[in-house]
TrEMBL record:
The lineage of its organism: Eukaryota, Metazoa, Ecdysozoa, Arthropoda, Hexapoda. Keywords: Leucine-rich repeat, Repeat, Signal. This is LRRNT domain-containing protein. The keyword Repeat applies. Pfam families: LRR_8. Gene3D superfamilies: Ribonuclease Inhibitor. Residues 1-21 form the signal peptide. The keyword DNA damage does not apply.
Length: 127
């Protein structure tokens, strides 16, 4: 009986292993390059000469959003229920970080704002 149980586990693992997993295509803004990195949806809009984050077409399942090297001066509020965990905003034109900008980013783990001219951060910006 144990032999049959072990064989069943091997079949299940082989059937659902990452090598056999084809993730679904998710939404992607026109100006960006989107792809999976391991099992995480990445939206790369770096060096695209953007002046704002392209919320139109941005998947709520995006894990990493790369907005480095653009001309963004303000971060607009993200859509509700977005699952964003990593936000890259280095080398933009940001001068302040407001609380409203990060409202609803309940899964955010890290953010990079280096290379900006930030002069003010609201005390509750990352609350």
């Amino acid at each position: 009986m144990f032999k049959h149980f072990a064989l069943l586990i091997v079949i299940i693992v082989a059937r659902f292993s990452p090598a056999n997993f084809t993730p679904p295509d998710l939404e992607c803004p026109e100006e960006c390059d989107c792809h999976y990195f391991r099992i995480n949806w990445v939206t790369d809009c770096s060096e695209s000469n953007l002046t704002s984050i392209p919320h139109e077409g941005l998947s709520l399942d995006v894990y990493i959003l790369n907005m480095n090297d653009n001309n963004i001066s303000e971060i607009e509020t993200f859509p509700e229920n977005i699952k964003l965990r990593s936000l890259h905003m280095a080398d933009n034109q940001l001068t302040h970080l407001k609380r409203e900008s990060f409202h609803g980013l309940n899964f955010l783990l890290d953010a990079d704002f280096s290379g900006n001219q930030i002069q003010h951060i609201d005390p509750d910006a990352f609350k």
